[in-house]
């Protein structure tokens, strides 16, 4: 199979699926994206695109369209929960000129990618729920309405509840991390600067950053908990529960949480990184291969990197099996490192008052004073 004219079906019109569609189309493939949702519009809230993700968006030719609708991040500020005093500031203004970090609304990133994909000749089909593959080696997709689609390669970009992942890896049960997160977008009435503020308390933290032209504020509040909460992006909760969970945090956090009317609550689960990412005919990317906890803001960035590397690996000489194996080999070590670091960060944010927390904060302040060589 050469890329020119090969027929590629992508399951999932999320960030990874749309980025892969653009990258594969640029290599000459005929690409069709199948998305289960009725539309590709207003879903989700804020996410962070770091310089590694921006590099991919630049190469796909969509960076300007996105930055026009987004807010450039100037700092990441780690704060103590009681008085909001700063423990560490990562100054993003110090990044080299060609590297930038952005606060983005997920819906904006999806529409920029979808628009560019359609203009490039990618076929986007919504209301199409894939139920599995057809053919022993996965030569096509089966849909909930009984129809099917024959292709040379099926790309599983279908997120945390992927239907293609079990085709390659069997069913694996994720485990509850003992953490839940509320998410909301509110008006930015406190004139929050273009910083990501992480308010760190014992067993809990709150992250805030502005979106779009700065009038909106993205809020994510994480709490350790014994009880299970459903995994997924669409479970509304009572705002009282959110406010109660963060009693004891300083006035700025209260003022922000007081504005939240309709928080979405989701349980944070750990899934093992898939052992098998590809077999002839089927390949995984993004959350379908490696769901990542949100504590390093790398879920979307890893999906973008996967998309770029997949197209690059498929465009090389060799058998399809070799090219797919090269994609997995290029991605796996990096993804494992990032997924591990994201999981470890929750512990760092949630230290209880006492010597360990004091030592950690002194250490963080010292890191903040370090000057590059
Ligand atoms: P996703 O972006 O999750 O995309 C997967 C896509 O596959 C979805 O569009 C889904 O509808 C589709 N799909 C799943 N199963 C099927 C099927 N059987 N047939 C056809 N289509 C299917 N991250 C944040 O940091 N902030 C957010 O606010 C945020 N909101 C989100 C809202 C939604 C509705 C979703 C689905 C994800 C959200 N995420 C959010 C997750 C974030 O987008 C991903 O973690 C990350 O970008 C990796 O992208 P992905 O393409 O691998 O997966």
From TrEMBL:
Membrane-spanning segments: none
Every FAD-binding domain range: 7-340
Pfam short name (any one): FAD_binding_3
Keywords of the record: FAD, Flavoprotein, Monooxygenase, Oxidoreductase
Domain of life: Bacteria
InterPro entries cross-referenced by the UniProt entry: FAD-bd (IPR002938), FAD-dep_Monooxygenase_BioMet (IPR050493), FAD/NAD-bd_sf (IPR036188)
Molecular function terms, GO-annotated: FAD binding; monooxygenase activity
Listed cofactors: FAD
Protein name: Salicylate hydroxylase
Organism: Primorskyibacter flagellatus
């Amino acid at each position: 199979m050469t890329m020119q004219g090969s027929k590629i079906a992508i399951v999932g019109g999320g960030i990874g699926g749309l980025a892969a569609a653009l990258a594969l189309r640029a290599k000459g493939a005929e690409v069709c994206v199948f998305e289960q949702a009725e539309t590709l519009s207003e879903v989700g809230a804020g996410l962070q695109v770091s310089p590694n993700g921006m590099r991919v968006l630049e190469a796909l030719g969509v960076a300007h369209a996105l930055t026009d609708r987004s807010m450039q991040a100037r700092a990441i500020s780690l704060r103590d929960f009681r008085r909001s005093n700063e423990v560490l500031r990562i100054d993003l203004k110090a990044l080299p000129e060609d590297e930038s970090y952005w606060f983005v609304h997920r819906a904006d990133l999806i529409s920029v990618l979808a628009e560019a994909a359609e203009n490039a000749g990618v076929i986007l089909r919504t209301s199409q729920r894939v139920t599995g593959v057809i053919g022993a080696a996965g030569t096509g997709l089966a849909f909930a309405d009984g129809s099917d689609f024959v292709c040379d390669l099926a790309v599983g970009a279908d997120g945390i509840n992927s239907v293609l992942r079990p085709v390659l890896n069997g069913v694996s049960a994720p485990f509850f991390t003992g953490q839940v997160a509320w998410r909301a977008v509110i008006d930015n009435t406190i004139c929050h600067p273009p910083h990501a503020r992480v308010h760190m308390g014992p067993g809990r933290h709150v992250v805030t950053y502005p979106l779009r032209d700065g009038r909106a504020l993205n809020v994510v509040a994480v709490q350790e908990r014994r009880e299970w909460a459903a995994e997924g992006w669409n479970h509304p909760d009572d705002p009282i529960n959110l406010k109660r969970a963060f009693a004891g945090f300083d006035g700025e956090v209260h003022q922000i949480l007081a504005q939240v009317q309709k928080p979405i609550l989701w349980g944070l689960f750990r899934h093992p990184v898939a052992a098998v990412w590809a077999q002839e005919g089927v390949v995984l990317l993004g959350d379908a291969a490696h769901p990542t906890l949100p504590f390093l803001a790398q879920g979307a960035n890893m999906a973008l990197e996967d998309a770029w590397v997949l197209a690059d690996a498929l465009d090389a000489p060799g058998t399809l099996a070799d090219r797919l194996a090269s994609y997995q080999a290029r991605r796996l070590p990096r993804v494992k490192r990032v997924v591990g670091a994201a999981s470890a960060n929750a512990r760092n944010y949630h230290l209880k008052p006492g010597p360990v927390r004091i030592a950690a904060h002194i250490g963080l302040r010292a890191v903040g004073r370090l000057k590059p060589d």
